[in-house]
């Protein structure tokens, strides 16, 4: 179907799908994003697996129409994947407003449907922030524990990368695909960076640089974030489909409203709603909650009972606390020469040189060299009150010589930055919506200024007129929700243990960035994937011991 | 600069088309609600047929496309061959073209395709399509902006030839490969 407004109405149209529970399920996974999909795929061959997702299955045939939504000015970012409305209502109460519905996709594939697809490993010190940097918390696992899972996650997602980054943690084998070649604008930055003693290197992309896993290589649509029509960018429908082929059952439009427990401190059932207004109980031996950094704590809090009045798995009282995101820092301007931007929607060079300078006062941060600085002509063409030759002249004037750099900065975990349940507001099914109090500390804000200083120095060395700087006052989140069910060996200090199993309920795991005790400054999805694969192994072992 | 059928095919590759397949239930479901009419539309208008859509959009393209663009008729025809499928979008295009022609007849005494270039430009501005923000369910001005003006601009500037006019041969929306970003200025 053509046209941006022709996208199917997956959220409310009757479809005749059987959404009744699966009998004799071994594992129930809540959430069909990357974590849930990888766990399901891991277990589906040997076990009876059912996956419940609050959102719909999206028709692959609609991807071009969704791309049109991404380009046309009428549509806002949440419109591309149908986010919003009463289903996705939320409240903000913190220092900073958090644009939650810009930051997630509900449905089969989850937020990988709209992500950019950048997949770095966390650095070794990220797992030992308290010990090595004097702030934050140590993870109960080390880089060495995750290292084989990182390698496997890179194979599963399909990562294009190179081993030219002297600041990256050690790796045991090359990336599955060669890195994307540097951009033309990277070559301009390289001269400036060389004269300043700043190193540039490739960046790992979960995007095919060559055919991989029966998916296309990148064909340059240039709209990676929020939609890749070619399938070159990994999204979790890959593993959902694989899990289903292996026998898993995936039920969409089935929001889980609460987890019920039995008298033995085990989760007994996931209670979910279906579009026909019915509610069902999905029983299973093991449960894996993989609903992201906001809906995961919300579900645990919604599952309060007489035995667990503060919410399920919340013996520590930390469910929902320590909500973190990465902070954006950026700067950009124009050159007096062409820079060839907006051909692709991902970046190809980065700088991790300053990352491990982190200490008590400076957060880890990484620098990015954009390939999409300045306006996209086709988007600009659809706005303004000009057409014909006047429009052509405006587009020529606007496009062609922009450059920009970005950065992601770690924020420290803070118990006052948190997700709770709203007192008075409910969603479309009458359940309290998430209430977000997002606070950002001085260490992150100071580090944004440090990143800005380097960015401006590079741009000036390049000869650019610096036209904008996104500093502490203009920063925003990178849409990476983390920290709200933190991992700790100590049941008083965390929600899950080192295996991502809840301290309080022995048959319940959490696969999500919500378990991160600290965030580092690297995009989280590769770490989410590595932890999910590890959860899959742990669940498999537990089930084997049980039987 | 000559637009070709290849450009039309490229525009369709960017924006999508399935070609004439009416999907009954979904067709009805995704038409959505229309807001109150703004009074400028004759309730007896019937959606324009494909030929009228082609003639009208080609005529409008001669106004909204840059003057050096040639081959507009073939480009628009090729593009619409894919866009005028059974979708809600196709219906919106047909209905909006009918509205625009109704206004052209009322205000200028002839359909858009029979107006000279200056009158077509004037008509679009009189409708308000120059200052309106596009909205598929909005006022006449907003719908003309969405289904007519921006439909044409999207097709042109998401194509390689349209992109080249403003300095980018692989514009956003066009699957022009993963090499162009590596190349310097030609």
From TrEMBL, chain A:
Basic and acidic residues bias (residue ranges): 8-18
Gene3D superfamilies tied to this protein: FAD/NAD(P)-binding domain (3.50.50.60)
Entry cofactors: FAD
A molecular function (GO) term: oxidoreductase activity, acting on CH-OH group of donors
A UniProt-annotated Pfam family: GMC_oxred_N
Region: Disordered, residue numbers: 1-21
Record domain 4Fe-4S ferredoxin-type: where: 209-238
InterPro entries: 4Fe4S_Fe-S-bd, FAD/NAD-bd_sf, GMC_OxRdtase_N, GMC_OxRtase_C, P2Ox-like
Keywords assigned by UniProt, alphabetized: FAD, Flavoprotein, Oxidoreductase
Protein family: Belongs to the GMC oxidoreductase family.
Protein name from the UniProt record: Choline dehydrogenase-like flavoprotein
From TrEMBL, chain B:
Basic and acidic residues biased stretches: 29-44
Region of interest (Disordered), residue spans: 29-48, 164-186
Entry-linked InterPro entries: Gluconate_2DH_su3
Top-rank lineage group of the source organism: Archaea
Stated name of the protein: Gluconate 2-dehydrogenase subunit 3 family protein
